[in-house]
Amino acid sequence: MPLNDCQIKDAKPAEKPYKLADGRSLYLLVKPNDGKYWRLDYAIDRKRKTLAIGVYPTISLAKVREAAENARRMIAAGQALQCSQAIGQTLAAAIDIQAASKGFRVRYFNVLIG
């Protein structure tokens, strides 16, 4: 059964890291330091590998599903290394846009107040 946002928010850290499966090898790794990390498992030449997609809540459930689907396509085409670089660049750009908009709001309100 796929994850939903309430399940992710309710996930509490335990003594050992544990996984919350979303399906199709995508999961959320919950660590004892209260970190929640998106991971995608895949295999190339019978060797298991893990792609680190991002950190929750910086990367939302919808964005991680989209990124995982793109990664699966690239892995199927034999582009595993390019896949991790492309996913990282795409998500970094999304984070930069969010950070820039927050920075703009802070500067705008400082001008209004100060």
Automatic annotation (TrEMBL):
Family from the record: Belongs to the 'phage' integrase family.
Biological process according to GO: DNA integration
UniProt keywords, alphabetically: DNA integration
InterPro entries: Integrase_DNA-bd_sf, Integrase_DNA_bind_dom, Phage_Integrase
Listed name of the protein: Integrase DNA-binding domain-containing protein
Domain Integrase DNA-binding: 3-79
Record lineage: Bacteria, Pseudomonadati, Pseudomonadota, Betaproteobacteria, Neisseriales
Gene3D superfamilies: Integrase, DNA-binding domain (3.30.160.390)
Cross-referenced Pfam families: Arm-DNA-bind_3
Organism name: Neisseria musculi
